[in-house]
């Protein structure tokens, strides 16, 4: 058994062999070794069964050795394999594996599951081919195990985020009314982590004056599918009074039947106490003002105004703090999710090349890729809200930009809506990212379309405003891009929540609630603001206030320089501290025909560069512990000034003052994007790269008049 332990710890794929008759054992071990596996020879069937484990890559048996044996231990292990595992077996037989010639083969197939019968006599290359095919399948299973573990890590991070935000999670199955609640959720209702808490328990704990409203809102959510959101009083078992805020969404099956409610809750007692104290203080101050007004002259009227300003400032401060906290959490989650999507997309793209000819497998891979790309689009919206997206800010003629989108806007809103534009030709340019502003304008137009189901008028106008400086905008000149509709409008309560992330007036599944949040984040990132005004039955006006500039827009080049093709085979140094991302990127690079050397930190990469090894190109992640990708690039260029480099990043987190000429590769990227950035980097000595804020790698194509993307966006959608 000591010898077996040494083989298991060798790190080489292992084949477990039970071939007791004649030279079978020697032959099998020789062929297994030729196929690239370490071999473990079992002396009897009991040892074979006890040696089975997840570390075994292949099992080899002879049919005559197990024909009349007790296979229950083996069958028990096979059936108990984890979901990712399906251990392959090779059975050496003299009668083939078909039921017409070898009825016993059916019994072995049922016990072993993933089995290949190899009829004697066979050529050595046949065995080696079958063994290598089985090994490839097993290695894919190990990759699946690693991805499952990565998803589990993502779930743990989500739980950590919930704990950090002191949010309790809960689910309610509607068919049985069975409630599952986290320990934090139980604590918010005054219960201990080990207490059994039912739906009826929580309903009974609601203050009697609030209970009917809570039940009515729950029924409304179940009947209409609208998001559940409420704040109510809760009485704990010790009799103390608390405030609880609850949000939930309804999940339905594929037939549209409501299945369960999933939500979060938080204890808002402290906030409510502060608000109540402020309310009482304000009432006291107002009462004193009213009393003194009777005795003093009109000069004291300015004191009502001071109280109102303080209330507005307090409300703006609370809103700003809330949005900032949510933005930081959202940006971090989106960045980590981008890394997971990088692994998923890279492996799916490579897997698609290996299933050619299998229509069903190709369809499944394509479906998975489409789902992952939708996830990537969602992360871009989250980063836009968190104000962590990479912007290419330049002077832009807004009148020209709006005019160029005329055809696209008309197709997006439909023939029942007329579009009016007021675009003065004498306005100065604005400092904006043209691509992101086009997406924002398209989002506003589609939102306006949805607010006018029976048709109406969409008005787009531009004007210049001078601002003396306030809490939202700095002093200076601004261009105001206004989008107005004649639709249903919003009441004051809805308007107050309009830019909150994930808030939507649309039914479940019709919008993400990130559209206005994304536009708000873009406006703030551009040192501007988004202002909304609305009235029920009249319509809504959305105004984007954008900084004006005296600089003139850049003239487009007459002809874009062609991107030279890279050499057929390059030696590339890939630097990434995430093992899964590194593995996926290496696979894509090697599939492109390049030689790849891996480094899992900036320090290790610098050692390789300093050692005298020749590298044609370095591709490095930006966010790494110890040494960032930008620091690595600077140090590498001190050693080899002409070494081409590409910087990969999940979002634009380069600190202020970072000034380095590097193409940017936005995660998640596919093989085509990777190849394009390699070609651009290899051409950098002949075609100078722009600074990190310019059009170098990572820039997104602008919308063209021929693109029809109205079906891909809606409340909260954006195009990448």
UniProtKB/TrEMBL annotation:
Class of this enzyme: transferase
Keyword Coiled coil found: yes
Keyword presence, Coiled coil: yes
Domain Histidine kinase: from-to ranges: 332-550
Pfam family, one: HisKA
Domain Response regulatory: 571-682
Keywords carried by this UniProt record: Coiled coil, Phosphoprotein
PAS domain: residues covered: 154-225
EC number per UniProt: 2.7.13.3
PAC domain ranges (all copies): 228-280
Catalytic reactions of this protein: ATP + protein L-histidine = ADP + protein N-phospho-L-histidine
PROSITE patterns: HIS_KIN (PS50109), PAC (PS50113), PAS (PS50112), RESPONSE_REGULATORY (PS50110)
A GO molecular-function descriptor: phosphorelay sensor kinase activity
Region span, Disordered: 689-720
PTM-bearing positions, type 4-aspartylphosphate: 621
Coiled coil: 271-323
Protein name as catalogued: histidine kinase
Organism: Rhizobium johnstonii (strain DSM 114642 / LMG 32736 / 3841)
